[in-house]
Design a protein that fits this description.
Chain lengths: ~260, ~240
């Protein structure tokens, strides 16, 4: 029996009903002698919002950077839509082109808002009229219509993050990786970004969000995984994580009992 | 005539020489601009790909090349002049090119002097681009050529400033071009001053020769033009930096 439905995905007592999109197998990475991620196993299903939660330094950003191929894992495999992405540089390029990542601090190109948002479409050699239409639609979603010709560097922090969001989703990626996307924003912009996340997810994009904002996880995520010291100690539906945590460390973290 | 009169008289005469567009002065100015601009354009065309390679590629000897570029930024002009002279004299390894005492030799010397300056400043401008900007290119599906293009666009004001700094150095340079160019003017006096139109005589080398001959007013006229050119280049560089 479904217990809740969010973004068109049904949650049951045992988890999500969905097709496997990304499979992380025995993933590990070390920087020098320090193991940043240890033997991670995780399956992300198509259409879900998955939250990676944990304290600073737990390995959330490192995991997202591996998923977007900015770091080479020391061990393990990444199976994306049935393809082993790490098999060759061509596979990495192909997998990466179906993803997008948004950083904590939005990086803007020193050009107009339009050209920033259009960038992902331009590198895919999309025709000009389609670019015009898609950029306009993306800017409408993030509430930046009318700012197309403004230099992106002159946007406020919240506007820049929303523009970065539009730029990340304009080409309809299969997976959107979000690294603390609201960490530096005021409550009004946080609410806007969360609305956009839900909207983008409803349109079919799978989202993996790294955050230590517990309340945000409850608001937007279907499932969550707790990452502590490079280990994924528990993965479950958001509701189960917050109401029936299996691991004592999960319980302590969500009750803010852990000191970092 | 005391020292002040001497200078004021020189400035007044210089003013007339400039206003009447004296052919000797104009030919020297023209050659200075031609040699310096050509050397700077060639140096920029070398420096930009070099700065990109040093920024984006990991290869053996990269750090040594960066050290070489940094050292080259302070290269003594007379040493470069001597090096180019030894290469281009008839008995030298490149003597068959018959370039010694020609504007081409001066361009070569200035090219060697200016390339490290433009490379070094361009490299600093590219390295100043925040890493997330480049990572954003990749995360949006771009590849390394896209990253290079975005970097050039992001660092464009820095690169233009680098080229202008190179031009400023080329215009002000005297030691190297004096050695390889020879400070030659055609025979025959024009308008009662100088020795004729310039062949390898530039503003800087002409100032040295006019001063040594005691023709201070001509030297001051050349000096004023040189300062004006350098000032214009610097004002342009400042304007571009402010726009950034």
């Amino acid at each position: 029996m479904p217990i809740s439905s969010r973004g068109g995905i049904e949650l049951t007592e045992t988890g999500l009903l969905g097709i496997e999109l990304l499979k992380i197998e025995n993933l590990g990475i070390s920087f020098g002698k320090k193991a940043a991620l240890k033997n991670l196993n995780l399956t992300i299903r198509r259409g879900e919002v998955f939250a990676l939660i944990g304290p600073s330094g737990a390995g959330k950003t490192t995991l997202l950077r591996i998923l977007n191929f900015f770091e080479n894992p020391t061990s393990g495999r990444l199976i994306f839509d049935g393809v082993d992405c790490l098999e060759s540089p061509d596979e990495i390029k192909n997998c990466r082109r179906r993803m997008s990542m948004l950083f904590q601090m939005p990086a803007v190109f020193n050009t107009s808002v339009f050209k920033n948002v259009a960038y992902g479409l331009s590198v895919r050699k999309v025709d000009k009229s389609t670019i015009q239409r898609k950029v306009r639609d993306a800017l409408e979603i993030v509430g930046l219509c009318g700012k197309e010709n403004q230099n992106a560097r002159t946007l406020s922090g919240g506007e820049a993050q929303r523009m970065a969001f539009a730029r990340a989703v304009v080409y309809n990626p299969d997976i959107l990786l979000l690294d603390e996307p609201t960490a530096n924003l005021d409550p009004a912009n946080v609410a806007k970004i969360e609305d956009i996340i839900k909207q983008v997810n409803r349109a079919g994009t799978t989202i993996i969000i790294a955050t230590h904002n517990i309340a945000q996880v409850r608001r937007i995520a279907h499932r969550a995984g707790i990452l502590l010291d490079g280990e994924l100690i528990e993965v479950n539906t958001t509701q189960a994580i917050f109401t029936k945590p299996k691991d004592a460390r999960t319980s302590a973290f969500i009750k803010n009992e852990m000191v970092y | 005539m005391n020292g002040t009169d001497f200078i004021i008289g020189g400035i007044i005469k210089a003013f007339y020489l400039i206003v009447e567009m004296n052919p000797y002065i104009m030919s020297i100015t023209g050659l200075s601009i031609k040699v310096s601009v050509t050397a700077t354009v060639l140096a920029t065309l070398t420096a930009i790909p070099l700065a990109c390679a040093l920024s984006f590629l990991q290869f053996r000897g990269r750090q040594a090349l960066i050290t070489l570029v940094n050292t080259g930024m302070g290269l003594p002009p007379v040493f470069v002049g001597l090096f180019v002279f030894v290469m281009l004299v008839p008995a030298g390894p490149l003597g068959f090119l018959n370039m010694i005492y020609t504007p081409k030799a001066m361009i070569l010397a200035q090219y060697i002097l200016v390339t490290p300056v433009i490379t070094g400043i361009s490299l600093a401008a590219i390295k100043a681009i925040p890493v997330p900007v480049i990572e954003t290119v990749y995360t949006l599906g771009g590849t390394w050529p896209h990253a290079v293009m975005v970097s050039l666009n992001e660092a464009r004001f820095g690169i233009i400033t680098a080229a202008l700094a190179g031009l400023g150095r080329a215009l002000a340079e005297v030691g190297a071009i004096l050695i390889v160019g020879g400070n030659i003017a055609y025979t025959g006096s024009i308008g009662g001053i100088g020795e004729g139109l310039s062949y390898t005589r530039t503003l800087t080398t002409a100032i040295t020769s006019e001063t040594s001959k005691g023709d201070i007013s001509t030297a001051i006229a050349l000096g004023l033009i040189l300062i004006s050119l350098n000032l214009s280049v610097n004002l342009l560089a400042n304007f571009i930096q402010r726009r950034d």
